[in-house]
Amino acid sequence: MIQSIWGKLGGAGIGLALGGPIGALLGGVAGHVLIDRDGAPFGKPPRDVLFTMGLVALAAKMAKADGVVVDVEVRAFEQIVEVPESEHNKVERLFNLAMQTSDGFEAYARQIGDAFKEEPALLEDVLDGLFHIAKADEAVHEAEYAYLKDVATIFAFSDKDFERIAARHVRRPDDPYLILKADRSMSDEELKRHYRRLVAENHPDREIARGLPPEAVKIATERVAAINAAWERIAAERNLR
Question: How far does CA 80 lie from the centroid of its chain?
Fold first, then answer.
């Protein structure tokens, strides 16, 4: 079982290891003034903490993107991020502090994008999580969509990649093929092989094997569900069995 990250957030060391705006955010919660410095003796930043804290910060900033923060968005965040009851107040403080901090969302997105630039699938996990929160009130609003597109650009995703990710959450006529990164000209057998490869590449077990936190596993599970739903629509359209 992957250990929850919340027990790791109590001291200054973790913030120093993370550095940047996310380290400063953790410092504000821990009650320490953290200074980002090269060569800090805390080793490589923990991947699970960096992933989850980046999601916290970007979700909090997005909650203000349409000018109002609603409870349903906060609840959607907690559907993705596993929060023990004993740590709920700490997470709430993180969320509120991230909304109030002078750092813009760009600073958080750049730190996450730089940290995981060799792992675009992990950056895709972050975007999927943010879309999940954005659609919590049953609509991805224009300001939220623009925000997510800006984050995707900072993550170095192309417009085409962003449209593919968005199609998992925002319904469009070509959703099934866009979600599967497939072309309508592909044969039935090509589509089957492509679909099976896509499921294998995005399976939640891969997130577990990479040592990522439960949040990433939940996002991967939702992504595979979207892939399966898209395949079922295509299979019905083509009368495939």
Answer: 9
**Packing angle of the helix pair 47-63, 71-80 (nearest 10 deg):** 160
Fold of 171-241: Helix Hairpins (1.10.287)
Q: Which two tokens stand for residue 99?
A: 């909304």
DSSP result, 191-225: HHHHHHHHHHHH-HHHHHHTT--HHHHHHHHHHHH
Ramachandran angles phi, psi of 208, nearest 5°: -65, -45
Asked whether 53 and 94 are in contact (CB, 8 A), the reply is yes
Domain ranges of the chain: 46-166, 171-241
Query: Which amino acid is it at 211?
Result: G
Selected residue with higher pLDDT from 36 and 176: 176
pTM for the structure as a whole? 0.66
Nearest C-alpha neighbor of 148 from the set 177, 168, 128: 128
CA nearest neighbour of 36 among 14, 52, 55: 14
Q: Which residue in 162, 137, 164, 167 sits closest to 150, CA to CA?
A: 162
Structure tokens at 237: 């359209």
Using alpha carbons, select from 64, 227, 189, 218 the residue that is nearest to residue 126: 218
pLDDT per residue over 64-96, tens digit each? 766 555 566 667 777 777 767 776 676 677 777
- Of 210, 12, 209, 218, give the one whose Cα is nearest residue 116: 210
